[in-house]
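User: I'm designing a mutation panel for Tetrahydromethanopterin S-methyltransferase subunit H and want to avoid disrupting the core. Could you give me a predicted structure to guide residue selection? Please restate the sequence first so the numbering is unambiguous.

Assistant: Good idea. Sequence first, for numbering, then the predicted structure tokens:
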Amino acid sequence: MFKFKCSQKVYDIGGVKVGGAPWENPPVLIGSIFYHKHKIVKDEKSGEFDKNTAEELIKTVEDISNKTKLPAMLDVVIASPNAAIKYLDFVSNTTKMPILVDALSTDAMGVAFKHVRDVGLLDRVVFNSLNAKSKDDEFKLLQEYGIKASVLLLYTERVVDVDIRMKNLELLLEKSKVYGIEKILVDTFVIDVPSLSAAMKTLLEIKSRYGLPCGAGAHNAISSQRKSFKERFGLEGTKACELASNLATIVMGADFLLYGPIETAKEVFPAVYTIYTSYRYLGRRKDLLIEI
């Protein structure tokens, strides 16, 4: 268990606290809905979807979140401008959970942000995400519509390089300050198995140096190569690998976890609960903590 030298920042997003020491606030678990090829989506362009099944999935997350006392957010993937309002209205009316607006184009961003502002959802949303290759137009959209919270994704083609991730963060922090982004969640970027270890090392570096809330889409370590894992280990083995990759970041003190498809909440929440509960007890024993 790590104790970080730097004071740890804690942000309130829609009533959910994210950040702090590993035992201070429970990690926030974020599942994706309306993602590419999600079975409940009938038409990505028009935003038509199975509302009954979508509601069941969201209620399942709420239920397991209540049982484990682990906070949840929803990553709402918006593939087109036409889908933006439909998805956001449905999710915001179905649950009080904070929402990550995962808009996949600037057109979708504009429609989504305007709607978020117009209906009074600004305090409940986080943009997912900005990276070092994001154009100024994207930053300006956040500023124009008053989006104050964003995930900063430390994307790099040099997937095992920690230094480039840190340089990307410095660039993004400078631009975030210019464009008025006040609540920052850092996604240390996982795209495959080799990148997972670099992402975890980066997480420790950032929390030690900046104290910012950090996490990752750790399931990508497996999902990006799911076919080969499935051929080698079968479906159950692949699920075990995905769960292991998600838990790895929690063990290292992640403040949030983008655990992948919302359907996996039933497995992820109890597994994270086990680790966090253990860490809470360890956190009481200050003499056992490793300062970094």
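For picking mutation sites, this is relevant: The chain is about 45% helix and 20% strand. The longest strand covers residues 72-78.
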